[in-house]
Amino acid sequence: MDWYPVFWNLRGSAVLVVGGGKVAARKTKALLRSGAAVSVAAERLGDELRHELEAGRIVHLAGAYTGQVLSAQRLVVAATDDTELNHRVAREAREAGIPVNVVDDPQHCDFILPAIVDRSPLLIAISSGGRAPMLARHVKTWLEARLPHSLAAVAELMGRLRGRVKKRFSTVSARRAFWERMLDGFELTQIDADRVRDAWRSVKQDAGMAMPSVALVGAGPGDPSLLTLKALQLIQGCDVVLYDALVSKPILDLVRPEAERVFVGKRAGGVHTPQAEIERRMIAYARRGLRVVRLKGGDPMIFGRGGEEIQALTQASIPFEVVPGISAANGCAAYAGIPLTHREHAHTLVITSGCAHPDGSEHDWTALAKPQHTLVFYMPLHELRRICAQLAAHGLPTDWPAALVIDGTQPSQRVLRGTLVSLPQLAEEVGVAAPAILMVGQVTALTEQLHSHGTPSVIKDDAQERREAVYAML
């Protein structure tokens, strides 16, 4: 972040604009709207500024610019068409200890003036740091067309209610829950002052305003752009998030900064948080009145122990909701260019665990080893050689295609392709580490011509084109 955004109270403050043309007029009008006392230093004023002068809204400091006009100014804006003069103004303002803005010249600025969407008291400032002003203007136009002017009345009313809400709810968490319940589920275009009044009337009747205390949220396979809108809303509004090892850092960066983050990950042979401890913490946080997000990689109900956690919450009488995520099977297959089903190659999709069963039971390998199946094994690495051997022993050819997708959907994604015979050896040679999923079936051979021993590959810039070509075959 090159510039730190600050909203500055200029009401009644002396601000100098140097320049008399259209750009100076545009800056002057924005400053006047903020309540600043604006003086304009220019030999001549354009029509717009002359109108402001005749209306008594500005002071005209006529004549050529001199450093004396800087006296007692709080801010300075240099907006002439003379680059040398603008730089002189900037230099002399700094010498006088006055912050200065040089229009369209960020290298000589102490502050920049962003594009503004004004729904006062709600203000949205947009800036590209001087790199792409037309992009900032385009974003401003896009927002202007979509944000109703009624938001101004909403913000005013919410401001008037803050004191009463604070008295009604003793904790920050309870107050936040009230406001978010009021706003939740509505697009900004649908929120108006009547909705705020209705929420306040309801709070008088129901002081508890109970919200679902725990949300089991699927974070998807890793790429933050695959996060669902509902998941994003929850992680940006929660008080505490309990997250797994498979939740990527870019997704964690989207969590509300004030929220407490609790790592409850599990890694084979490494850090391991017992499931009972996860459930105990989740319930304890919820009973404190906090809004808890249990954030899991992929989908919480597919090998995410979501069912066990729902049982624990139900037994503890804790309200909950479940937010599905894009599963690792779906996300990794799509980013690797592997169609999970195909009319000619795969009529059945089986998603199963690659870990050894705690009770010692075995997969029904005969049922799995079918040529028209696509098999997806979660957490397969420790049992990879045995999985491939069992599938070959129960009916699949030894040269049957298979693939490992490592770090699926992330920039570090790799796709290791081989056969039931070659893939385990190839994985050992490459040194594959979790997270990874195993896909077995003819569909894994559709996107690339396999080398006889398989080929490890990194996802390329042309991955999207390759995926589109594969999906066009379906």
From TrEMBL:
Q: Which Pfam families match?
A: CysG_dimeriser, NAD_binding_7, TP_methylase
Q: Which key words are in the record?
A: Cobalamin biosynthesis, Lyase, Methyltransferase, Multifunctional enzyme, NAD, Oxidoreductase, Porphyrin biosynthesis, S-adenosyl-L-methionine, Transferase
What GO MF annotations does this protein's record show?
Answer: NAD binding; precorrin-2 dehydrogenase activity; sirohydrochlorin ferrochelatase activity; uroporphyrin-III C-methyltransferase activity
Q: Where is the active site?
A: 244, 266
Pathway per its UniProt entry is: Porphyrin-containing compound metabolism; siroheme biosynthesis; precorrin-2 from uroporphyrinogen III: step 1/1; Porphyrin-containing compound metabolism; siroheme biosynthesis; sirohydrochlorin from precorrin-2: step 1/1; Cofactor biosynthesis; adenosylcobalamin biosynthesis; precorrin-2 from uroporphyrinogen III: step 1/1
State the InterPro entries in the record. 4pyrrol_Mease, 4pyrrol_Methylase_sf, 4pyrrole_Mease_sub1, 4pyrrole_Mease_sub2, CobA/CysG_C, NAD(P)-bd_dom_sf, Siro_Cobalamin_biosynth, Sirohaem_synt_dimer_dom_sf
Q: Where is the signal peptide?
A: none
Enzymatic reactions: precorrin-2 + NAD(+) = sirohydrochlorin + NADH + 2 H(+)
Gene3D superfamilies in the record: Cobalt-precorrin-4 Transmethylase, Domain 1, Methyltransferase, Cobalt-precorrin-4 Transmethylase, Domain 2, NAD(P)-binding Rossmann-like Domain, Sirohaem synthase, dimerisation domain, Siroheme synthase, domain 2
Q: Which residues form the Tetrapyrrole methylase domain?
A: 214-422
Which GO BP terms, alphabetically? Answer: cobalamin biosynthetic process; methylation; siroheme biosynthetic process
Specify whether NAD is a keyword of the entry. Answer: yes
Can the keyword Acetylation be found in this entry's annotation? Answer: no
Sirohaem synthase dimerisation domain boundaries: 151-199
Q: Which NCBIfam families would you find in this protein's record? A: cobA_cysG_Cterm, cysG_Nterm, PRK06136.1, PRK10637.1
Q: Which family does it belong to?
A: Belongs to the precorrin methyltransferase family.
What's the protein here called? Uroporphyrinogen-III C-methyltransferase
Q: Which organism is it from?
A: Acidihalobacter yilgarnensis
